Amino acid sequence: MAQHTLSVLVENSPGVLARVAGLFARRGYNIDSLAVGPTENPTVSRMTIVLNLEGHALDQVSAQLFKLVNVIGIQEMKSGESYQRELLFVKVKKSNGNEAKIAEIASRFNGRVIDDGSSTVTIEAVGMPKDLEALLSQLKEFGLRELVQSGVIAIESGDVTLAERTLTETGVASSESHSQTEDYQN
Amino acid sequence: MGEQITGAQSLVKSLELVGVEVMFGIPGGAILPAYDPIFDSKIRHILVRHEQGAGHAATGYAQVTGKVGVCIATSGPGATNLVTPLADAQMDSVPIVAITGQVPGPAIGTDAFQEADIRGVTMPITKHNYLITNPDDIPRAIAEAFYIAGSGRPGPVLVDIAKDALQRMTEFKYPQSVSLLGYKPQTEPDSQSIRDAAALIAQSKKPVFYVGGGVIKANASAELIKLAELVGAPVVTTLMARGAFPDSHAQNLGMPGMHGTVAAVTSLQKADLLITLGARFDDRVTGKLSSFAVNAKVIHADIDPAEIGKNRYADVAIIGDLKESIRALIPAVDAELKKSKPDLETWWRQMNSLRSTYPLGYNEPDDGSVSPQYVIERIGAITGPDAIYVAGVGQHQMWASQFIKYEKPRTWLNSGGLGTMGYAVPAAMGAKVGAPKTPVWAIDGDGCFQMTNQELVTCSLNNIPIKVAIINNESLGMVRQWQSLFYQGRYSNTDLHSKRVPDFAKLAEAMGCVGLRCESKGDVDRIIKEANAINDAPVVVDFNVHRDAMVWPMVAAGTSNDEILIAREMAPDWDSQEL
Ligand SMILES: Cc1ncc(C[n+]2csc(CCOP(=O)(O)OP(=O)(O)O)c2C)c(N)n1
Hints:
The structure holds 2 protein chains of 2 kinds.
Chain A: E1 2-11, H1 16-27, E2 31-38, E3 44-53, H2 55-67, E4 71-77, E5 82-93, H3 99-108, E6 112-116, E7 120-127, H4 129-139, E8 144-149, E9 153-156, H5 162-167, E10 184-185
Antiparallel strand pairs in A: 1-3, 1-4, 2-3, 4-10, 5-7, 5-8, 5-9, 6-7
Chain B: E1 4-6, H1 7-17, E2 22-25, H2 32-40, E3 44-47, H3 51-65, E4 69-73, H4 77-80, H5 83-91, E5 96-102, H6 118-122, E6 128-132, H7 138-150, E7 156-162, H8 163-167, E8 169-171, H9 191-203, E9 207-211, H10 214-217, H11 221-231, E10 235-237, E11 252-254, H12 262-270, E12 273-277, H13 283-286, E13 297-302, E14 316-319, H14 322-339, H15 345-357, H16 372-383, E15 388-391, H17 395-403, E16 412-413, H18 424-434, E17 440-445, H19 446-452, H20 455-461, E18 467-472, H21 477-486, H22 504-510, E19 514-518, H23 524-533, E20 539-544
Parallel strand pairs in B: 2-3, 2-4, 4-5, 5-7, 6-7, 9-10, 9-12, 10-11, 12-13, 13-14, 15-16, 15-17, 17-18, 18-20, 19-20
Antiparallel strand pairs in B: 1-8
Helix pairs in contact in B: 1-2, 1-7, 3-5, 3-18, 9-14, 11-14, 12-15, 16-17, 16-23
The structure holds thiamine diphosphate.
Thiamine diphosphate binds near residues 419, 448 and 478 of chain B.
């Protein structure tokens, strides 16, 4: 099994998140993370979904997602061809002057202290999921009081945009076709 | 500003513009505003006795006419009563639109009287659905709903409309056209896939056409006959495709699947190529998937890309409208076959041997009672292939598929995917409304009939003279069969006592129908003819039949198609077959 990241453009209509979530639940697909937000086009939202699946199952997920009337386009974000980032906040337990050490570890992962409380230090970090995992494993020894993660968001490298790919008249993907997962576009 | 009308008027106007001729429904508080303009509309509204009946009637109408069927209900319990027919239509890809009233916009989410989140409830069992709270949105929602229901892979669409949106004033603007960013079904097949498929067909020595309900939906029977005759391969028609290819055609091996013919099931198992047209590798057809057609390559033609590779890998996928896909295949296959035509003689010798050794059949009961298969066979033989046959769910459904000969598409209706007991009477009602000049026989079980027979009142009062054959084996026969086979004959809760109660003939009479009873074999033909002669009222015939008849052949659930049995503990004699 391998992790795959799908970017999904959806119409910004009520119930669309429920439709997508319901589809995953009833077909038995597990989501590792899901992030939703507005796009440059106010009528369109974008979901980034990270899944742990085999190739064949990924084709099915994409095909089933694309069947939803409110789904406009789907594209797999491949590593090497896209940027993928996640934001985390974590409250780390403070004890006998470990703040400096905590801040030093955070900075090694491009993180920073955003709040220094009486019993905890709050860190913010942005990075690839595996870097954030590494950061967390180092912070763990101090004791993690609270952890929040945004879920991964992703964008393709280069000039091409997902909207261009999916909202064109012809509805045909402009780039070379990808090997396993078909990219579904209208 | 243009002319101001109410949302309700806008709804009815939109339904008229989209071409609705008839709808089935029951009013109630939240939908009441819509019923006022319905009173004046040219659209025929048929007042049913249960919303489930409205939903299945819309389905029957749609399956017979190919048009979108319409049902309408109020909020809460009215809407939830539509859940079963919506799920049924979703599973069998039937185009229907359900209109439901919802509590007023400001009350939504407050657990108001008769509030149910029917959009949420039906999300997984509709092709798409809407909740409308602004009257200006009604015409577009209706136009889109009918477009979505009827195009691509057809399916049910629900439009839930808040009561105040029906009451408020709006300027009527019907959309010129419907264009949906996220919904553009591909109808034209890709030419490369057609060439690849043609090449595979021309190489195959053991091809089989695996034909599903999609062929009927695409109105592609004529094209299928052409292609099948060109290739010369055996054809099997699934439960949803009975009638898509004539039973009388020499290439037809019958139905595959759990209760399919030995020849049809074995043809799939032994094939080197499945030419799959509008079918979906359902578990009732494949048996244990890992042992299904292990040596076959697969051509899979369907309008729904999500069906490709869902259950079975496709070597060649043809995505598009089946009529267009088959049309494109004919010249491509013709060209390939002109280069080289494989000899199918050995293949046919094997299939013909199976066909003649293991025809469908049944034993006469030794206690002198009437065999259910005989009754069903006679109804088909006497009424003929121009009539429409609508089955419930259970043994009688399988026998109706096996022993009535279908020659034309849209003459066989049943609930294949969901297996909905109670489907037959209301679906037959809808079918008769869609084809008023055609005789419509519901072949129903005594169990199924007791779920939805109240729609016979609707039939009586609205001059919808359907005929119902109750195949009365006084039990939930299909379940009883499983108890006989897999639960040591421990008949837990399957005895209906329905030769005692209810008195079906009297029940029928009470609902304004003609009620008949048949208890002996010698009366079967006469009573069928008597029923066929009555055209001014619905007829119900209570056929008392043998209770222990079983449906054979059978591939037990979860086992391989290779384990097909032709009778209890009796496998075909494979050693005597050259396969
Ligand atoms: C709504 C519903 N409930 C339960 C079932 C399970 N079930 C399948 S067949 C069957 C028996 C049907 O009995 P009857 O209508 O008498 O038909 P028969 O099998 O005797 O021909 C039952 C209970 C079902 N398919 N649908």
